[in-house]
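The passage that follows is intended for readers who have already worked through the single-chain material. We present the inputs for a multi-component assembly, then the predicted structure in tokenized form, and finally a short commentary. You are encouraged to pause after the input and sketch how you expect the pieces to fit together before reading on.
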Amino acid sequence: MGTVTKTVGTSSRQYSTLSAAIASIPSNLVTDGNNYVIQLYNDSEFTGTPPLGNVSGFTTDASHTITINCGSGQSFYDNANKTTNKLQYNQSYGVGLRATSTGSGSAVIAVSTDYVTVQGLQISDGGQTQAAISQTGTATHSVFENLVCESSFTSSGSGAISLTGATAVNCLALNNAGGTGCISQGSNSIFVAITSVQVGSANNYGFRGNYDSPLYLDCVSMGFGTAFKSGTSGSSDYNCSGDTTAPGSHSLKSKTYANQFVNNSNSSSRDFRVKSGADLINAGTPESSYTGGLDIINQTRSSSTPTIGAWEYISGGGVTVNLSGQGFTFTQANVSEGTALTLSGSTPTFTQGTVAPNFGMNLTGTASNFTQASVAMGLVINPSAQNLSFTQGSVMPSWTVGLSGINIAMTPANIVPNLGLMLNDQAMNFTAANLGPFAASAFLNSQPLNFTTGFLNGGAPTLPEEYITFARRKTRM
Amino acid sequence: MATHWYLHTGIEMELLVAIVDNGTAIDAIKAGEVITVQPDGWGWGSEELANANWRIISAPILGTHAEILQMGYILGELMVHGKTYPRKAYLLNLSALPNSSQFSGARTAPIISMQSTDVIGATTKVA
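Having made your guess, compare it with the prediction:
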């Protein structure tokens, strides 16, 4: 018995489409004597009319299987920034398949052959009201794991993940149109460590068993009309719901959606990594026979109290990182913290780095330099450093930016807070820089404040204009 | 009713078509199944250009016709009824295509060009 591998990507691969690679597999793998592995490469996004892959009509058994996964280094869970990337469909993170037309109502990937494993893919219906992945028929030994599935299906009859007896593990199932997250039809499917979320209107079901009793372990359901539809396996446990329907005596009920994930908005900012302080953390039970002790991006899960859902929360370098040395340098580095990052040393330098703590960042050093660095904050950035310099960097806190340093230069940097911007500095220079607070206010009390080819997008800025110089551009309200 | 040529002319597309059955199961790939449709000039993989059981047809068909050729059965049907359905709702009747001898035996040309009316005329609904 051997394994035949088929590669799919651009014309440098054996196949340019998943459909053709599937069609090339002999109909009877048992008599053929081989396992078949289809490896997708992220040469470009796979798009088209669904199904982009339809595994049907093959004879398989436990020793003669079909696997669809990614080539080495090609999955979102292989990405160098996998711990800081948003948990959402984004083909730049890894292999992605997206429907670009409605077709006949098939899922983007459809499986009705048994002993099929689909692993490591990002699958989106592209707003075409389809399921992302489906299993039908008697393919009850098929497994769907480590998948990012997004769907805009609008009713209860299908979900981002739709099964009739198979197993789904470590998946994000997202619906953005008031539809259903996951559905099991008639054959007691198994869902383990699934994050099922609704970012559209709160209708339908996070998990729906239809004429059956699916098993739910370590699953979270948020944002739906009903999190877990009644009719579940009595063995279901350690789940979490936004309402009272999570099955199991150890399950968490009536938890607040906004407290669980980094960003649960219906926007490109959505991010279903678990955030610091979430109820999901340490609330699950090990199901390593399903998960292998790993999460959706292959992080090692807690062996005793894993996080509920697809994402294992890992506090990493600690909830708070305090750097008080002098002259520390981040070069192409990523800093991802749960709560706070405090830099109080002198001359910290970020070069092509990313700093993405969830809550706060305090810069109190001298001469902090950000070069092509991105700082994405949850709540507060309070750099009181002197000679703070952003060069082609971005600062995107959600709430407040307070810049109280001296000689702050942004060239050509972007500051995009959602609510407030307070600039109390002296001699701030913005060159080709944009300031875009979205809602509340911008308080600019600096003197002198110079904008050169930049513009200010503000809701209601307070501008002591006698001190502010705009060259070429003024405010855009 | 008269057939108007302009109703059938779309943009040039390339259809990867199976010319033999791949097994006997109801939901196995059948001769005449359009495996995938891609835009003109598509960068096919080496195996797609060489597989003796497949052909690539280039024709200026409408996008809607391309979708018809790729249609399967809707997921709701498959889930609720638990019944096995054919993979596709429509196949190409290979014997109805011009130069039908090109659709059996050895593969002599990587891409076969024809008119949209040829493809439309050979499109057959699966019983």
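Commentary: The first helix of chain B runs from residue 46 to 50. Residues 68 and 90 of chain B are 7 Å apart (CA to CA). How closely did your sketch match?
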